[in-house]
Amino acid sequence: MTSSSALFSFCVAALTFVAGFFYRIAFKRLLGPEVTPSGFGVLLAFVLLGASAVASVSTELMMSMIVIAVAAAGYWFDDIIELSAQIRTLISFAVGVAIVSAFVNWSGTFSLWLILGICLAVGFVNVVFTNIVNFYDGADLNLATFILLTTCFVLVFLPAYSEWRPIAVACLAFIIPFAVMNTRPKNIYLGDSGSFVFASFLTLMTVSFFKDFRSIPIEVAIPVALPAFDVFFVLFIRIREKHDLLTRNYLHLYQKLNRRYAGFGYLLPQIINALLCLVFATAFHAAGLQKLFSVILAMTTVTIPFYFFCRWFFLTRRPEVNSAPDI
């Protein structure tokens, strides 16, 4: 990482505190003193864009960051006036299509049907990531933990001179000060726009990985395992119980742990699961399995039993007084 990128990240870390202070004042003046400021995560898009510009990244990566920043500015209004689910989905889908379009050379290489299939697939992936990340922004520090884990995995496993490194460092420089502010209850939130930015960042890394397996290490997928399984399991519950899927719910593991126990212990399952998956993936790879399959196998064989163990041991085994048993 160049000295200019390091200086940029240092400035991001310092200015995030200042931006958070003024953002809270402006937000409360706009919507009222009783409203918790949300949508601060929209600034992450411009941090990532700035880091990309300072580091002089590839054209594909730069174009993708511009698309994410422009879309995030529009998505931010969801934190102010609550955009409809259809508009949010359309923005997420369109950004996924734009990202893959920036990375793929379409000139005479692919058939029209294959082009359409790839665009639909990546657009759908971005919608899925957006919903997974958004559902993990329901308690203080929970989404920040998700982002911190992912960014740390990126930095640990990236190739030495990857163009992604200054971007990951800038992301870390933003999210650590935010996490400090987010430790105070109802102080400031990343919001739906912040969830969208990070989800688009995950989609961008996914596209980059499939274009060139050397660009993004497969280990980066590990922190996504528990949030993704939790979201899909809760979705299964809600479909079975015939809930309105467009409404917010409080059935996720971290939400139930947060309600049941004091402190920030509800953050531990994400961290423990990521570390266990990494240990098992390393063991599978040492046993002769290819790294891609080692990580996928570890994410599956560790996350599913660990998740159900947490729900059983901390929730079902210790039901609340005068409350229905946890599922």
Binned, the helix content reads over 70%
Strand content: under 5%
Number of domains: 2
Mean pLDDT: 93
User: What gross morphology would you assign?
Assistant: globular
Structural class: mainly alpha
Using the CA coordinates, give the radius of gyration: 20 Å
Main sheet? none
- Give the beta-strand count: 0
Distance between the termini: 47 Å
Provide structural commentary:
The chain has helices spanning 3-31, 42-55, 59-75, 78-81, 85-103, 112-135, 142-157, 165-182, 191-211, 225-240, 253-260, 268-286, 291-316. With 327 residues, it is mainly α. It folds into 2 domains: 1-216, no CATH class; 217-327, no CATH class. The longest helix is centred in the N-terminal third of the chain and has 29 residues, at 3-31.
Write the layout of secondary structure elements.
Layout: H1 3-31, H2 42-55, H3 59-75, H4 78-81, H5 85-103, H6 112-135, H7 142-157, H8 165-182, H9 191-211, H10 225-240, H11 253-260, H12 268-286, H13 291-316
Helix pairs in contact: 1-2, 1-8, 2-3, 2-8, 2-9, 3-5, 3-9, 5-6, 5-9, 6-9, 7-8, 10-13, 11-13, 12-13
